[in-house]
Specification:
This protein is α/β, with parallel strands linked by helices. It has seven helices and 14 strands. The protein has one domain: Metallo-beta-lactamase, Chain A, CATH 3.60.15.10.
Length: about 300
């Protein structure tokens, strides 16, 4: 937590009609913790209620004004640091849980095929029990009090990932775009080709503020999107350059390319490398010797 970041459990205003509460679940993968957002004042929509954490849920309820109620619970994606808390809040407030679909919904045909073959690993942090009461397809909207919230299907980090857009260029970006780090893409639930398409889609919009699932608000979305797109493309070029010296496994490539990375993050780096290799396979630049998997040997095509 930086000096400018409030402690967990404190509701702070981050945009007109929007408050943020940080969950006390900091880690190398979650920054200061999961960010939960409250939209509206009387009829409140809760975005990403976080893990099963009674203290966090108490902070959410304490932030409600007298007479206000939780009318809807929106979930960007089914990871255990974002979605499990939805069930308890829903039961307490009789509020519907809303998302794109259960874990695995929205998976591309390529990733469905890879998942059916098995042996690819993945599934880190999956909330396989997540089952929304109501689904929102890409472009569908709902009312939160007097505010319209529109769903943007942004697969990549996870196949059922949604961003939620408010009028006036404010977008809740979940784990698709975070200001503190790039996100994990772990196949088959994660899909680098889909992720790059989601970044491109957000880049075509003219938003002014991103409110991510972890880390501080992003006040220059276009610049960050350009930087993160360039970062992924650079990683792909680094992988292709490393393969020009000979075939290698994702683990060997990650150790070479992420040499200065915190060792605790190397498992995530290996999964990002695997996702990038599959993306480059789809583009015809990379091939695999034998069965595709986290320990497979890849080479230039």
């Amino acid at each position: 937590m930086t000096a400018s970041e409030p402690p967990p459990g404190v509701a702070v205003s981050v945009a007109p009609g929007v408050r943020r509460i940080t969950c006390a679940n900091p880690s190398p993968m979650t920054c200061t913790g999961t960010q939960t957002y409250l939209v509206g004042t009387r009829e409140v929509a809760v975005i990403d209620p976080g893990p099963e954490n009674p203290g966090h849920h108490a902070a959410i309820e304490a932030a409600l004004a007298p007479g206000a109620r939780i009318a809807a619970i929106l979930v960007t994606h089914s990871h255990r640091d974002h979605s499990p808390g939805a069930a308890e809040l829903s039961a307490r407030w009789q509020a519907p849980v809303i998302g794109f679909g259960p874990h695995g919904a929205g998976m591309s045909a390529v990733m469905r095929d890879l998942a059916a073959r098995g042996g690819l690993g993945g599934g880190e942090g999956a909330d396989t029990a997540f089952a929304p009461d109501r689904t929102l397809a890409d472009g569908q909207s709902l009312m939160a009090g007097e505010t319209t919230i529109t769903a943007l299907h942004t697969p990549g980090h996870l196949s059922n990932h949604l961003c939620f857009a408010l009028p006036g260029g404010v977008v809740f970006t979940g784990d698709t775009v975070m200001g503190w780090a790039t996100t994990l893409v772990s196949p088959p639930e994660g899909d680098m080709a889909a992720f790059m398409a989601s970044l491109a889609r957000l880049s075509r919009r003219d938003d002014r503020l991103f409110l991510p699932g972890h880390g501080p608000p992003v006040t220059e979305p276009a610049a960050l999107l350009a930087a993160q797109t360039a970062h992924r493309e650079t990683r792909a070029e680094q992988i292709l350059a490393a393969l020009s010296a000979g075939p290698a496994t994702p683990g060997a490539l990650a150790e070479a390319i992420y040499a200065d990375t915190d060792p605790r993050l190397l498992p995530a780096a290996r999964r990002n490398v695997l996702a990038t290799l599959i993306w480059q396979m789809q583009a015809g630049r990379v091939a695999v010797d034998g069965a595709l998997g986290p320990d497979a040997v890849f080479r230039l095509a």
